[in-house]
User: Which sequence fits this backbone?
């Protein structure tokens, strides 16, 4: 029960951070992108935290490119959840491992995500990143398919100083 309450509070904080940040506009120092409302820039409260998250995302991309299921699953905190489109939430290490195993099983899969924004809480231990993604893969008949969409990842700084994803949500544009 305690883990459930902790997860719920992290999720609610993530939602609150996303809601507040959307009201502020793009982070200072990051380029404005077409389609994002022209609002005053938000304050990136921790440049070091944002840099650490960017570096972690780059390492995650390397793990995806290398098709390293174990490493991809290891970017999540123990109580993390993945919210894929059109499917139930995925929790637990076994669930996250199976998600990445199935995702990387497609020999043609390639994914790239762009970070448009990173906001780090003033506490320095919670952050989120958001932006678009493009995913290329093959369907059951071997036809190439391309999906474009957007993502939000809520990050939590761990006791060892590393950032781990606690909420990973993404959905395709229609």
Assistant:
């Amino acid at each position: 029960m305690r883990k459930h309450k902790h997860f719920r509070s992290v999720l609610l904080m993530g939602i609150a951070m996303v809601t507040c940040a959307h009201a502020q506009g793009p982070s200072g120092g990051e380029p404005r992108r077409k389609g994002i409302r022209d609002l005053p820039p938000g304050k990136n409260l921790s440049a070091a935290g944002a840099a650490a998250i960017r570096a972690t995302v780059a390492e995650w991309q390397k793990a995806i490119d290398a098709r390293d299921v174990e490493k991809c699953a290891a970017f999540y905190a123990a109580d993390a959840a993945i919210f894929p489109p059109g499917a139930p939430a995925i929790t637990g290490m076994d669930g996250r491992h199976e998600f990445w195993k199935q995702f990387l099983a497609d020999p043609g899969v390639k994914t790239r995500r762009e970070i448009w924004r990173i906001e780090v809480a003033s506490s320095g231990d919670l952050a989120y990143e958001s932006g678009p993604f493009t995913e290329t893969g093959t369907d059951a008949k071997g036809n190439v398919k391309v999906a474009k969409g957007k993502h939000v990842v809520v990050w939590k700084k761990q006791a060892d100083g590393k950032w781990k994803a606690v909420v990973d949500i993404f959905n395709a544009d229609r």
Summary: Strands lie at 76-83, 90-91, 110-113, 117-120, 126-138, 144-157, 163-172. The chain has one domain: 2-30+42-172.
